[in-house]
Every structure is written in C-alpha cells, then in structure tokens.
C-alpha cells in the first residue's frame, strides 16, 4: 500500500503558529471527543504515522505534525531546536487549534518532548505514550554500541548531499532487520525528497546539533523527568529498539509514578507504529481509552 492510500481520508494542511511559523499537520477523526497528538523523532516527519492517523481517527481526533525545522514545516534559523522549543511548538499548535487537553504520544525525540510537555503543562495532557523514547538512561553495552553506531552514521552524512543509499542506511537503523522489506522506494524516496530541499539543508545542522554534542563532545543527553510525570503513562517498547533496549525501559519504569510497560509482540525496532501498525493501533486505543493495556 502506498503512503497516499494510507493517508486517504485524512486532511493534510498547514497552520500558522505565532513563534514557530507554518506547520504541516495530518488530521483525522474531527468528530471524536478526545484528541490524540502524534510526534515523530529527530529528522523525521509526519509520514512516520502514515499507517496510524486514519485508523486511530476512528477513535480519536488525531493530529500528527512536522516539528519546526522538519518535514515541510517552517525551517527557522533563529532558534536552538531545544526540547523547550519543541514543547512550546506543541503548546502553540494546541492553542491555535483550540485544543485544551489531549493525549500525547511521541516516538524517540517525540517521547522526550512528551515528557517535557507533561511536566511543564500537566493540566493539558490526558495520557502519555512514550514510544521507544529517548531521554532515559542507557543500561547495556549494546545500547552504548548502538549510540556510537548512530553517531558514526550521522557523522558520515554530515555536510553531504543526501542520496537514496544514505537515506536508506539511516532508515535501516530505525527498523528491525526482519522488517526492512517495508523500506520501499516510496518511503525512502519521500524522505530523500525532504532531505534534499534547500530549506532542510539549512536547518539540519541546527536540528542535529543536540545529537552531535552528545556523540562528539560527550554532552549529557536531554533526559525526561520521569518522576514528575503525573498522568497515566505507557512505555511502549520493542524487542529490538536500538540504544534503549527492553532492560532500559524496565529500569526506567519505577520512576514513572503512574507508568506501565508494554513490549510489542511482533519483532520490531524503533518504528513500531510502522513496523506493526495493527498491534500498535490496538494498544494505543486500549491504553488511551482505559489507562491500562493487557500484558
């Protein structure tokens, strides 16, 4: 199935935010009472949720969006691309769309933003899903090796014009090897088209500065203040998540006051929403509707 068919039934449009400018969103389920906002990882874009927006729109008012500096949203060159910037972009998006409270789910960097938003604006979040999130301690040698591999991959691409092969290699890092058949020409090509744009080439050094500081300068990564997250929360994990393996999620869980851990049954890597959309969507509906999910 193509991305176009995946999004059939969703509305893709732009909204203007006071600070962060033109922001692309994909939206479904306008008539549903509760809103669910989906956020991608660093260097990503809303197509990461191609297989979820319409399906979850049968249960929630769903919005996936491109961060500032990402996808087809504005490429600002006068911000730091800090976690605080992404948190404030989310807050501005909710304000502009007149959404008072929402379920928030973020993958990788999106999980860190989810945590930052939950701590800063606890009154505006219903339930939180930390989908293979960053921002928790690494607890295994394999996790550190995965981080070094990501740093080497990023360094190799820095300052280079992207190619189909370089984008494919980066996306293979995201998916479990057994799911690489999902990385078809359309999915890789759409990311290559975004990465090849002049505006993305201008913003990318700023977007990736956080990652570069961690990998090259030994800076401490942004961490989620898990103990301050007061809403019901789900650590949604996979068997082959790079850097933060299942052991890392198990170690982080006791710090979440109202947290639960769910490990996907299907083998998957860093993109469970794309690698196993049926299971991901079912778990999301169950948790966001009840606050619990069956083990």
UniProtKB/TrEMBL annotation:
It comes from the Bacteria. GO terms for cellular component: membrane. Residues 35-277 form the AB hydrolase-1 domain. Transmembrane segments: none annotated. InterPro entries: AB_hydrolase_1, AB_hydrolase_fold, AB_hydrolase_sf. Pfam families: Abhydrolase_1. This is AB hydrolase-1 domain-containing protein. It comes from Halopseudomonas phragmitis.
